[in-house]
Amino acid sequence: VSILTSIGHKSGEVRRTPLLFLEDGERVVIAASKGGMSKPPVWMFNLKANADCEIQIGPRNRLMRARIANEEEEKALWPRLTEIYADFDEYRARTDGVRHIPLFILEPR
After folding, report:
1. Cβ proximity of 30 and 106 under 8 Å
2. Closest among 29, 99, 33 to 64, alpha carbons compared
C-alpha cells in the first residue's frame, strides 16, 4: 500500500490517502475506484485541481505530478492492476453505466 499526499481542492489542507498502486518504471499508477462506489474518491478532485502530489511507498517519498491515463495507456495498465488486486474488475463492473474509473499516472517532477 502507498500513501498519496495531495492538497484538498476546497480546504487547501494536506490530505493523505492509503491506496493500492502499480509501479511502472519511475511512474506510479493508481485507480480512482473508491471500492466501486457510485461517486469518485475525493483525492481524484484534489489531483485534478492540483496535479502536484507526493507518494510514499515503503520508506521512500517521491514528489510526483499526476495526470489521467489516456485510453491506450488505460487499456495496457488495467490488466496489470487487476493482477495485483482482482477486485478492481468487480469495482469496474459495479460502476458500469454510472461512472468511469480513471487511472492516474504519477510521474516524477
Report:
1. yes
2. 29
- Hey, what's the cell of 1? 500500500
Residue 62's φ and ψ, nearest 5 degrees, are: -130, 130
pLDDT average, residue stretch 66-81: 98
| pLDDT tens digits for range 25-49 | 999 999 999 999 999 999 999 999 9
Q: Place 21 in a pLDDT band, splitting at 50, 70 and 90.
A: very high
What is the secondary structure of the chain as a DSSP string? -EEEEEE-TTT--EEEEEE--EEETTEEEEE--GGG-SS--HHHHHHHH--EEEEEETTEEEEEEEEE--HHHHHHHHHHHHHH-THHHHHHHHHTTT----EEEEEE-
> Which amino acid would we find at residue 93?
A
